[in-house]
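Task: sequence design from structure.
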C-alpha cells in the first residue's frame, strides 16, 4: 500500500529580500523620480505662462494707448495744442505777452 500515500514536501521560505520586493521598490523610486521631475517642469512652464501673460497684457495696454493717441492726433484740440506748444503759433486775435523774468 505504498502507492496510496502522498508525500508532502515542505517548502521553506527564504528570508531576506525577494525579487518582488526589489521590483516594487524600483517601481516606487521610478514613480517618485518621474513625479518630482514632472512637477518641476510644470512649475517652470506655469511661471513662463504667467510671464507671457503679463507681457501680453502690457502690449495690449500699449496698443490701447497708441490707438487713443491715433484718435487724438486727428482732433482739432490736439492740432491746436501742438501748434501752440511746439511751433509757437498763436491765433490772429490773441495778444502775446512775454514774461521778462524768464
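Answer:
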Amino acid at each position: 500500500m505504498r502507492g496510496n500515500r502522498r508525500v508532502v514536501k515542505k517548502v521553506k521560505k527564504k528570508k531576506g529580500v525577494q525579487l518582488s520586493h526589489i521590483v516594487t521598490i524600483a517601481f516606487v523610486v521610478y514613480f517618485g523620480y518621474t513625479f518630482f521631475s514632472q512637477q518641476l517642469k510644470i512649475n517652470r512652464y506655469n511661471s513662463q505662462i504667467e510671464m507671457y501673460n503679463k507681457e501680453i497684457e502690457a502690449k495690449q495696454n500699449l496698443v490701447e494707448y497708441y490707438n487713443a493717441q491715433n484718435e487724438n492726433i486727428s482732433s482739432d484740440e490736439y492740432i491746436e495744442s501742438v501748434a501752440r506748444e511746439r511751433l509757437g503759433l498763436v491765433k490772429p486775435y490773441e495778444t502775446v505777452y512775454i514774461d521778462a523774468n524768464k
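The chain has a mean pLDDT of 86.
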